[in-house]
From TrEMBL:
It comes from Saccharomyces pastorianus (Lager yeast). Keywords: Acyltransferase, Endoplasmic reticulum, Membrane, Transferase, Transmembrane, Transmembrane helix. One of its GO terms (biological process) is ergosterol metabolic process. The active site is at residue 588. It is a multi-pass membrane protein. This is O-acyltransferase.
Amino acid sequence: MDKNKDLLENEQFLRIQKLNASDAGRRRSILVDNEDELYGLGSGSSSSGSEHEDEQPAKSTTTITTTTAATQNHIADDVAFIPGTTADNTETVTQVVETDDNVFKTHVQTLSSKEKSRYRKGSSDFISFFDDMAFENRPSILDGSVNDPFKTKFVGPTLEKEIRKREKELMAMRKDLHHGKPAPDADTPGLDASTTSITTTAPASVASPETVVTIETTILSSNFSGLYVAFWMAIAFGAVKALIDYYYQHNGSFKDSEILKFMTTNLSTVALIDLIMYLSTYFVVGIQYLCKWRVLNWSSTGWAFTSIYELLFVGFFMYLTENILKLHWLSKIFLFLHSLVLLMKMHSYAFYNGYLWGTKQELQFSKSALAKYKDSVNDPEVIDALEKSCEFCSFELNSQSLNDQKQKFPNNINVSNFFMFTMFPTLIYQIEYPRTKEIRWAYVLEKICAIFGTIFLMMIDAQILMHPVAMRALAVRNSEWTGIMDRLLKWAGLLVDIVPGFIVMYILDFYLIWDAILNCVAELTRFGDRYFYGDWWNCVSWADFSRIWNIPVHKFLLRHVYHSSMSSFKLNKSQATLMTFFLSSVVHELAMYVIFKRLRFYLFFFQMLQVPLVALTNTKYMKDRTVIGNVIFWLGICMGPSVMCTLYLTF
């Protein structure tokens, strides 16, 4: 009985017992089965009922519980198990015969902020921390839907052949009908399945009694591969014409191009700062090594050092480029955006391994306690909790490296592993990724040509359509104030002028980053999962757009902001969604500050405006009007960037 009491007074065991209880009262899951729930689109989107909560029966039989005077104050993102003691190390053991949900609330007070359920609702299946997403071998949408079919399956016009074949089938059917043979139905082989039936009545002389014949109306379909070629041909000729016109208008020189000057200024300085930024990311590898050597404990100090360093990392390089080096806005925004990419990679790497440190620590404790108390503790619930803990932790650790046991945690903590992760086109760290067998060098050359060709088109667009309007906007801002109405009228004129150029720039920028660059990097690193974006051009709501236009960032926000805010701060789904949008809006506003050197919060406002717009598009009136939804979406895409740019420039 003394050993039983000693174990029940151990806070680590109490935590394990709670985490591994399949019926642990009202429990919260940080995972979602349907990503629509992230934006309140699911049927159960309320703050209390949308979190996989189970109701335990009001009464239960003999239960041994422990109440603790104070709770843990560790708030370490993505760490499920943080051992420690309470503030005053006082615990009270109470024997009760009957209990209700209030006792379970007392249990919750003894746990750290990272407790979460490990079993699915009404099931004994594990909920892994990494169940929120998966990587697999798949091409990008443009490659899978356009480029690859065009290269491998394009045979020229096919519609005429299909029409001729269909005409012959109809003629044969009429002949059979004339000779009294039964007409084939829609299921007859050789007939197009996607047809519309038309019912006709045959003449009495053909058959008697009156014969009803069904003739199928073929729905014609074709591909538009030729128009794909024509589109790029038109872009190429248009760019060449613009280039020639600019050359002759500036006395046979491109030296006067402001955009060319922006692109070629301080290249060596930018490259050096970028290299220093990259090398600075290896700080998190050093922290993990110290945890591996047991110099640091992740749950107590490791996560704190990492979090502080991440803030200093972004702040220092922002200050360096703005106040010390005084770089041009284009150089600053490039370095700022790349620093954010490196920041997200550092965070994911550090807290992924931090979670596994907690899991490994729990496994060690559970095995030790089970070996010590298995024969002396008579309470089956105690043994069951320890066995479940061992089972879950072993599964969680072993499932991260299925193909290469040499990289099994913590062997994955090494410089080469982190180097490869930093090269992969993803922001989510894991030990293994799907890989392709070889590098297709012809594909790499194609994407390199696409990168430089797209940059060339963007420079022409910026020089001819956008830069002159931007200069006019700055002149308006620096002119004498003549009243709000006059300024608004001038702003409206600037807005109309810059919209066409911004639409072109937006689409080219998307293609450059998410298709050309990421696919090129993926091919060079043999990274198999090329799902970098969804078909965002078909979006009918801003909730869809937020999820699929930038898949790598969405995955990062889903795991390390949305889920982590639920587990660390005990937010419900609605609050976690607001938290995610808020953080994203702050970062976007910082980007505007880097470019325009002023905080106006225009972009912050428009970003947060997506939250009520999501609710609006989810109303009964808008839900089934997909065409209207897509029109409104494209109106926002076409007008939004132009509105924000001219606002920052003019006011």
